[in-house]
Amino acid sequence: MASVTQVLLLDGTIAIASHYLWFKPYEPTSYSYIAFVALLLVSPIIRLLQPLVYSLTRAIALAVTTYVLALLGSVAVYRLSPFHPLAAYPGPLVCKVTNLWTAYIASTGKSHWYYEKLHEKYGKVVRIGPNQISVTDKALFPLILGAQGMPKGPVWEARRLVTSRKAKGHRSLHAVRDLKLHAELRKPWNKAFGREPLKDYESVVLETSATLLERLRSLYAASEAKQGIVVDAAKWLSSYS
């Protein structure tokens, strides 16, 4: 009869195998689906553990805890390994392992300062997440954002959900990740963004920009803090656009 240690080692092996055979190639995002598959994988382990620990509750706790810890450990090791696609890009160790740190920085509203310091330390291309890089090299911008650039990443799914209560029917040109659908939705706008039409917009853009600068200068002039003031840039830029 197998010992508790042997069964838990088998549990850890299953977790590592599920990382490389399922999580890594398919990248599931549904938490309910992930929980279902994980429970399905640890079910045999629970059955093996129950007669050894004399408690179904304890068997479930041991099996699930071991599986989760082994899975997280496998993910962390892979993200730090030279086999990861972004291994060549420098960045903070914590950023290579998890997005939780940058999420915390974002919650403070100081992401722009944080990324600026990272670029000062690491250079023009910095790894800011397990699967994310930040780029300040303008020579690379056309390759990323150009007509033949890179497709939009998963972050746009969150932006799509934020900007629409009906996510499934949301067809914003900016948030669409499917390249074929994006090309279809862009067709009516292609002429509007041609060289000649854009020249007609120039006077409007210049006038609106001048108005924005004038209002910001007036706010500064009316303030008593001559060393600078704090304004809601998002509000003003929203009005500007």
Mind explaining what this structure looks like?
Helices cover 65% and strands 4% of the residues. The model has no long low-confidence stretch (mean pLDDT 88). The chain is built from eleven helices and two strands, in the order ααααααββααααα. Helix 1 (4-26) runs antiparallel to helix 2, helix 1 packs across helix 3 (56-80) and helix 2 (31-53) crosses helix 3 (56-80). It has 241 residues and is mainly α. The protein starts with a helix and ends with a helix. The protein has helices at residues 4-26, 31-53, 56-80, 93-97, 100-107, 111-122, 141-145, 155-162, 179-190, 195-222, 233-240, and strands at residues 125-129, 132-135. Strands 1-2 form a two-stranded antiparallel ribbon. It is elongated and about 85 Å long.
Keywords:
65% helix, mainly alpha, 241 residues, two-stranded antiparallel ribbon
Give the topology:
Layout: H1 4-26, H2 31-53, H3 56-80, H4 93-97, H5 100-107, H6 111-122, E1 125-129, E2 132-135, H7 141-145, H8 155-162, H9 179-190, H10 195-222, H11 233-240
Antiparallel strand pairs: 1-2
What's this, in brief?
The protein has helices at 4-26, 31-53, 56-80, 93-97, 100-107, 111-122, 141-145, 155-162, 179-190, 195-222, 233-240, and strands at residues 125-129, 132-135. It is mainly alpha-helical. Helix 2 (31-53) crosses helix 3 (56-80).
